[in-house]
Structures are given as structure tokens and as C-alpha cells.
Amino acid sequence: MTTVLIADDQPLQRFGSRMLLESQDDMTVVGEAANGSEAVRMAAELHPDVVLMDIRMPGLDGIEATRRIAAAGDRTRILIVTTFDLDAYAYAGLRAGASGFLVKDAQPEELLSGIRAVATGDAVVAPSLTRRLLDAYVHHLPTDPSAEDLTQEDSRLASLTDREREILTVIGKGWTNTEIATRLHLAESTVKTHVGRILAKTGSRDRIQAVILAYDAKLVEPS
């Protein structure tokens, strides 16, 4: 059973999401938060598998709430739900620690599959779309003061083998596991093993965070 916390300042949006999620045999809503502060508090109390996080909320917004929940180091994953597709808020949410984002006009089945994917540790955003998002906004956003500095990121990269560093670089370029296996002449199972080790060594929560690390560490330059 996947437990979900809904964070949205619009009661009708929360109601609709709850109705949809609780119609599924494998999901249950454990709480609703009307703002970011409530989301942080309830995530700490309830330890949901997934938080559906709105961005624009009164008081503490969804970006800062995402950052605080991710920093707590709990197993909770965050799925950003935003009004627009490729906007600066979505980028900021991913950088803050979200495992993906969807637009509010997504089809119900897209939301459900997104929640299931995030709950199992996968990223909702396709790698190629993630790169386009980063390319579009990496030069237009202020430096995140809470982000780790380049020295620390270099230290984490130092623990990677040459092959792992190579794979992290192409992950940053948007290559899928299948593309990595084909182009680097590796078995796909080997690629998956390398990716798992990269995430563990760098402390990346998921593939999206690995992509952001590749950008921050200058392994990949915006196109």
C-alpha cells in the first residue's frame, strides 16, 4: 500500500486528488496539508511514501517545503504538481529534492503512474525532458544557497570509478539505460548496477538528482 500526503492550498484540488487516489486498491491518503509548513510537519509525523506537492501555497511554498522534507533524510519521495510544464518552479523543485513533476492538467492515469513510479524510487520526468528543463533554466536561476558547493560535489565524484564517472556524465546528457548499454557496449544489467552505485556513492536520491549533480559538477554543459 502506497501512502500519500496531499499538499495543496485549494480544497477542491485536494478533494479531487483524494477521491482519485482512494479509488485505487494500492493507495491510501494519510493526510492533507493546505500549505508548506503543514506539509513539512505532517511528512515528519506520518512518514508517507509520497507527497503530492503544490508549488504556489501561502506562507512556506512548495519549493522550500520540498527542500526541508528532502533534507530530513526520510524515505518520503516528493512529486511536484505545477501549473506549467517547463517553468523555473519545476526546475527549482527538482533541485530542492523532488523526484519529478507533473502538470495539474495531467490525465488521472498519469498521476497514478507517477505516484507509483516515485514510490518505488524511479523518476517521473523522462531523462531527455529533464535535460531540456535544466538547459532552459540553469543560467536563469539564482544559486541555491542551501545547495552543496562544488568542492563537496567534487569530493563525492572522487569516489567514482572512471566507468562510473563516464556513466554519470551520459546520464546528465539524458541517455537512458538502454542507450548507455548500446553505446558503451555494456549489458543493461551492468548499467543498472553502475547507476545504483553512482546514486549510492554520490548520495543522489534518484536519477534526476544525479542529472543535477552532473550539471553542478560541470560534467555536462547546457546545450
From TrEMBL:
The modification 4-aspartylphosphate is found at residue 54. GO terms for biological process: phosphorelay signal transduction system; regulation of DNA-templated transcription. Keywords: DNA-binding, Phosphoprotein, Transcription, Transcription regulation. Residues 3-119 form the Response regulatory domain. Residues 153-218 form the HTH luxR-type domain. InterPro entries: CheY-like_superfamily, NreC/VraR/RcsB-like_REC, Sig_transdc_resp-reg_C-effctor, Sig_transdc_resp-reg_receiver, Tscrpt_reg_LuxR_C, WalR-like. CDD domains: LuxR_C_like, REC_NarL-like. GO terms for molecular function: DNA binding. Transmembrane segments: none annotated. PANTHER family: TRANSCRIPTIONAL REGULATORY PROTEIN NARL-RELATED, TWO-COMPONENT RESPONSE REGULATOR. This is DNA-binding NarL/FixJ family response regulator.
